[in-house]
Write a structure and sequence with these properties.
Layout: H1 8-22, H2 39-49, H3 64-74
Helix pairs in contact: 1-2
Length: 78
């Protein structure tokens, strides 16, 4: 799969996610944005960044269609 270059905002979100994962408190990290802003690309990068850790990841979406698109594009299991 081709790795796309991230925008400045995406880089900032990825950095915030890394800080969240490294933090001492469990919680929820929310990634939101308008259609076409690269959330799916960023989600794939986030999943890759913690793939080998003991962290548990749950991905949610507001609609069934959004969940199906995310699953297909990120290649994450349900």
């Amino acid at each position: 799969m081709i790795e796309l270059a991230l925008s400045t905002d995406q880089e900032a979100a990825l950095s915030a996610f890394a800080d969240f994962v490294a933090g001492p408190d469990p919680g929820v990290f929310v990634l939101s944005g308008a259609a076409g802003t690269g959330k799916t690309t960023l989600t794939r990068r986030m999943a890759q960044s913690i793939q080998d850790s003991a962290s548990e990841v749950a991905y949610t979406a507001l609609t069934g269609r959004a969940a199906a698109v995310a699953q297909a594009r990120t290649q994450l299991d349900r």
